[in-house]
Design a protein that fits this description.
By secondary structure, the chain is mainly α. The chain is built from six helices and no strands.
Length: about 130
């Protein structure tokens, strides 16, 4: 059991060294390769390069870990959770924003209700609904 824990710690500590940040030149070359699509989507080269470098620094290494032990398996979902939680919160905020606009246009929002209060109530409803 101790050996498995030591191996998992060694594997996890080596992972950041394997995931290296892409150079600006490599990201620029990627942008150029997809220039037409990027321009059609209104993605500037500067924005693409910044995002490319940030994602490559956060990306997991392409090399598979030596063996999945209970310690490494348990660590991965916990590491992925904050990103998923942020994405879920962002989706709820966008959905509540659309609800706010629709309710406001329909006159369904009580007088004196401001966005922060509406967002709080809507966020609670959407979380309870599993969004």
């Amino acid at each position: 059991m101790c050996a498995a824990a030591i191996l998992s710690i060694a594997a996890l500590s080596a992972a950041p060294a394997l995931a290296q940040k892409k150079t600006a030149k490599a990201c620029q070359e990627e942008w150029q390769a997809n220039k037409a699509a990027n321009q059609a989507n209104k993605i500037t080269e500067k924005a693409y390069v910044a995002k490319c470098q940030a994602e490559s620094a956060a990306a997991k290494p392409a090399v598979a870990p030596p063996a999945a032990t209970p310690a490494t398996t348990a660590a991965k979902p916990a590491a992925a959770k904050p990103k998923d939680a942020r994405q879920a919160e962002y989706a709820r905020e966008r959905a509540c924003g659309q609800d706010w606009k629709a309710d406001k246009a329909a006159g369904k929002i009580p007088a004196g209700t401001k966005w922060p209060q509406y967002w709080s109530d809507c966020n609670k409803r959407k979380k309870a609904a599993g969004m």
